[in-house]
Amino acid sequence: MNSISLDRTDLRLLAEIQQHGRATNAELAARVNLSASACLRRLQRLEAEGVIGGYGARLEPRALGLGLQAFVRVQLSKHGQAAIDHFIAAVQLWDEVVACHALTGDMDYLLHIYVSDLDHFSAFLLDKLLNASGVADVNSSFVLRTVKEFRALPLSQLGRG
């Protein structure tokens, strides 16, 4: 993957839009000490170069009735390309799965799941996940409390500028 050159102003602009996604261009420009036109040009460049992948709202799961969050580790019985493609295609169809990561170690995938309650989780597990051909083993963990939640990328680690 090609690395893009980002200066301090780019990093400040990215930090601002991560925290204040609904800010107007004029507000962003003022926060990073740019003119509105220069700020807009930088945003457009960052979008065109794929640094900014999109915009969206953060929804509160509990307010929507999604009160149970789980992480499910999945091990496949076969690791051929056809089996992997079949599992990935199935995951794409499951609305309960908000993220799926391929892993190293003893489990192949980590699913991040939101459901309304334990009954919904049970139905998902029995009717969807365990019925997906090629699933050998699953291990589920339920979230008791969120101590820290990902909200923004750690731009300070980039050490640029």
From TrEMBL:
Matching InterPro entries: ArsR-like_HTH, AsnC-type_HTH_dom, Dimeric_a/b-barrel, Tscrpt_reg_AsnC-like, Tscrpt_reg_AsnC/Lrp_C, Tscrpt_reg_HTH_AsnC-type_CS, WH-like_DNA-bd_sf, WH_DNA-bd_sf
According to its UniProt entry, this protein's organism is: Stenotrophomonas mori
Q: Which UniProt keywords apply?
A: DNA-binding, Transcription, Transcription regulation
Q: Which CDD domains match?
A: HTH_ARSR
Positions of the HTH asnC-type domain: 6-67
What name does the UniProt record give this protein?
Answer: Lrp/AsnC family transcriptional regulator
Q: State the source organism's domain of life.
A: Bacteria
